[in-house]
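Figure 2 data, in text form.
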Amino acid sequence: MSSRVCALGELELDEPKRVTVDGTAVAVVRTAEGVFAIHDTCSHANVPLSQGEVEDCRIECWLHGSMFDLRTGEPSGLPATKPVPVYPVTVDGDDVFVDVEVALNEAS
């Protein structure tokens, strides 16, 4: 079930926003390609991805520099080798909804 996490207007371009959905920490990011939701913990270390930088639809773990694709959760740089769950996002008017019960990839 999708939960409202914020207003679209609250999301600055390429600036992650940490939200909690049903007890799950999620980084929500608005890019030129759309709005994405990714699990807010790096698969390499227990570090919030929402504190990292976003570029080219990828989010960087600030601790060791691993990059994760916001669309697929796949890592594109060591030391991370495992994907991070990504979740469906729905935008309805100015409301952003995320469903953490269904991961869009195999990472969950």
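Caption note: The chain has a mean pLDDT of 95.
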